[in-house]
Predict the structure.
Amino acid sequence: MSRSSKKGPYVYQKLLEKIAKLKPGDPTAIKTWARDSEISPEMVGYTFGVHNGKNFITVRVSEEMVGHRLGEFSLTRKFVKHGGKIQKELEQKKEMAQQEQPKPAAKQ
């Protein structure tokens, strides 16, 4: 835990103000750049647009997320597959095998 327990959790105040203006379950996303803000119980049921450096990722807060940070649910790096030529060949063979499998006949 990076923050001292005597200080309490860090919640961005402007987020709490924006939450107070909306009703729970409202489909509008609250845009925020505060990725380091912890999710508090008041945030459950709201939708947030968390900035990942390029665009906003929609995050719907549930009870299991309380205590985590908003940034944990908006990844900043894009995973590119490992492999190369060999991996592509394996994937193509797998695709061909799936296409060649006979489809079950429909009952009449």
Notes: The beta strands are 29-32, 47-51, 56-60. The chain is about 25% helix and 15% strand. The CA atoms of residues 16 and 81 lie 39 Å apart.
